[in-house]
Amino acid sequence: MSCIEKVRDYIRARGMIAPGTRVLIAVSGGADSMALMTILSELSAEMGIEIAAAHFDHGIRPEAGRERALVQHAAGKLGIPLFLGSGSVPAEARRTKKGIEETARLLRYRFLEETARAWNAGSIALGHNRDDQVETILHHIIRGSGWRGLQGIPPRRGLFVRPLLACGRSELRAHVRDRHVPYALDRSNLDNRFLRNRIRNRLLPYLERGYNPAAAAALLRLGENLAEGWETLEKPLFKLVPRAGARDEVALRLSKIAKLTDFQLYLLVDLVLRERFGVLQDAERTHFDAAKRLIRSGRSGKAVHFPHGIVARLEHGNLVLSKSAGRRAAAGEVIIAGPGAYPLPWWNLSAAVEGVNARRVDPKANETEACFAGIVFPVRVRGKKPGDRFVPFGMKGRKKLSDLFIDRKVPLSRRGEIPVFEDERGVFWVPGVAAAERTRIGPGTRGALRIKLFPLSGEK
After folding, report:
1. C-alpha angle 165-14-269 in degrees, rounded to nearest 5
2. Are 280 and 340 within one domain?
3. Pick from 96, 91, 87, 83: nearest CA to 51
4. Selected residue with higher pLDDT from 135 and 365
5. Which of 50, 32, 321 is CA-nearest to residue 184?
6. What pairing do the DSSP bridges indicate for beta strands 340-344 and 333-336?
7. Cα(229)–Cα(83) distance, rounded to whole angstroms?
8. CA-only gyration radius of the chain, Å
9. One domain for residues 54 and 163
10. What share of the chain is helix, strand, coil (3-state, %, to 5)?
11. E strands of 213-330, at which residues?
């Protein structure tokens, strides 16, 4: 059975991805994530799903530029929209006093969650494979993990799904080789200073040689058996969680949950965090203990603050969990690889890009439409950056975008909400503000590019 067939059957058997929904694919540039993107691309029409790719630069690896280019090329070839994000993991790790790996994970997941919300994706697909599952379970055994950890990597948790748990690492590499899809090699996977690598490169082969040739299969069975038991415990608790109600708020009747055991309360609160708010990490025992004390006290007016802005409080006989209003998520980037339709979720817009006859277009730009000469793909759509400058239409000298905002009387509160379009030569359009003089359509211009903007949920 091919990887495509295994993934399709795995998704269907677990109800992992609903037809008619959007799936955001996390793509690092490695073999597994590139395989995931190509497999879901081939399955998208059959499954009735819309897909897009997301790539995050952690600001650590010198190969990041090459990895981004690999992802950009592959997504463009498949005709898949690509969202880009970046962050300085070392700087954030210093600020929060967390480890580099933990900080990288936090920033990456935050970017994926924000992008999924902005694009209205129903799920986020990650590239963990069957071998990753075996290594995770063994890792958790060594750490002395509890029941939850010994299940390994969940196939589905909140928004996140892992379709490739159906396939092994060697199968996925064969899949991308057969399709001539280039991928990046992560040299750090060979560094045995890291415990995870020692498990992969030394411990598991040692167990298979000296104790059980089928050790990997035995570990997988352990995880699957424990997952079935966990599901049996959780299933009755789903009935206590309202399916309808405010999007960012869940109210649980105290009269229905007060008699639950401490362990059941932990399961219930964890269930709400995962399934309704997509909080998969960072909630610790201290948070759950505080929530339990709050429920047992029955006194309104107090609150427990969970990570990611989730607050639990007692109100009118309910335990209310809600997401506090935070700052607007910083915009990521969207790559326009060529003519077509592209979602611009951070601006609640979509862009229709097409080549046109330069003699039949209106060269004037407005807030929602403009035509340009001399644009080279790929085009990057992003938020404003300090130092942005270009030569505006009708002018001779370069001008700072910040000065143009002042000249055009754009309110300070709106400046972060306007997309900036640039190609390899720099900024060429800021809708409603200015287009670049270098894109002027003249008498000798043959082909031109037209970009139209629409509300993301609207029809063209």
Report:
1. 95
2. no
3. 83
4. 135
5. 32
6. unpaired
7. 38
8. 25
9. yes
10. 45, 20, 35
11. 249-253, 303-305, 310-315, 318-323
Question: Are β-strands 447-455 and 349-357 bridged in parallel, bridged antiparallel, or unpaired?
Answer: antiparallel
* DSSP H or E stretch at residue 429: strand 426-430
Residues shown for the chain: 460
Whether residues 152 and 258 fall in one domain: no
Q: Which two tokens stand for residue 415?
A: 């400046």
Residue 221 backbone dihedrals phi, psi, to 5 degrees: -65, -40
CA–CA separation, 165 and 155 (whole Å): 7
81 domain residue, yes or no: yes
Question: Can you tell me the distance from the alpha carbon of 23 to that of 127, in angstroms, rounded to the nearest whole number?
Answer: 13
| Predicted local distance difference test score (pLDDT) of residue 328 | 43
Q: Is 81 helix (H, G, I), strand (E, B) or coil?
A: coil
Q: What is the pLDDT of residues 52-63, one digit of tens each?
A: 999 999 988 888
> pLDDT > 70: what percent of the chain?
95
Count structural domains, the chain: 3
CA–CA separation, 342 vs 353, rounded Å?
8
Q: Which parts of 121-261 fold into alpha helices (H)?
A: 130-143, 147-150, 169-178, 195-198, 204-210, 215-234, 254-257
Instruction: Quickly list DSSP for 369-408.
Output: EEEESS--SPEEEE---TT-EE-BTT-SS-EEHHHHHHHT
The whole domain housing 293 covers 241-323
Apex CA 83: angle with CA 82 and CA 87, to 5°?
140
Whether the predicted model's global pTM rises above the 0.85 cut: no
Tell whether 236 is covered by a domain.
Answer: no
Q: What is the per-residue pLDDT across 192-202, written as a single tens digit (0 to 9) for each?
A: 888 889 999 99
Degrees, nearest 5: CA angle 186-165-265: 110
Among 421, 440, 439, 441, CA closest to 431: 421
